[in-house]
Amino acid sequence: MYQVIVCFMAGLGAGLGTGFAGMSAAAVISPMLITFLGFPAYEAVGIALASDVLASAVSAYTYKKNKNLDIRNGIIMMITVLLFTLVGSWTASLLSNTVMGNFSVFMTLFLGIKFIVKPVMTTKESMTQADAKKKLLQSIVSGMAVGFICGFVGAGGGMMMLLILTGVLGYELKTAVGTSVFIMTFTALTGAVSHFAIDGIPNMWILVLCVAFTLLWARIAAKFANRASAMTLNRATGVVLTVLGIAIIGVNYFGGGKL
After folding, report:
1. CA 118 to CA 44: how far, in whole Å?
2. What is the spatial distance between Cα 151 and Cα 132, in angstroms, rounded to a whole number?
3. Res. 34: pLDDT tops 60
4. Which end is more exposed in the chain, N or C (fewer Cβ atoms within 10 Å of the end residue's Cβ)?
């Protein structure tokens, strides 16, 4: 029962973060499994990435059905993210880097406060007025930056993408989240397969619980997000990210977990 409760809470946080903001489930599930169930970090990340795959895919489908997904630029960014994740990982392997290990945790909290204080009110009409070639180039450069940081730091992809899609590419919030979860579906799948290939099959009971609970809450969050007004979505996203950021910091710093 204790394992079910931990997985439910982890899936709740990860699912809401994914459905509302395109956040990686690894940012929530990994510290929960490590701290409360004593899982090895590598296995915990593998389970978190596997949980992210279905949750992100279902969320992306929901956003696509509501015409809140930019597939063309999303695919371009996804390819560059995957390629430069490898470059970042290779670079990190050559260095002794621990400086940015808690990057994604504080990024979550920062973005949560940002959406509450300064909501993204860009409209789809203003998005379509942007120069297509300029947006294409920005997608490539942004994908390179996000991928390299993810590979070098090991986390922060979903939050980095949301920040860049809204702040640099000028996406309205729903399209930004839809595009982010679309990209995260494939990055999480690649990461999960890599982890399982290297470390073997994880604890199946915990894997099934985390996948199921994350999928459930991601589906609920994505449905709500697509029906909400821009201001309501900004506030809801801000509250969810702020609470998750504080909770993850608490788990890592006061619960004995390791960032």
Report:
1. 34
2. 28
3. yes
4. N
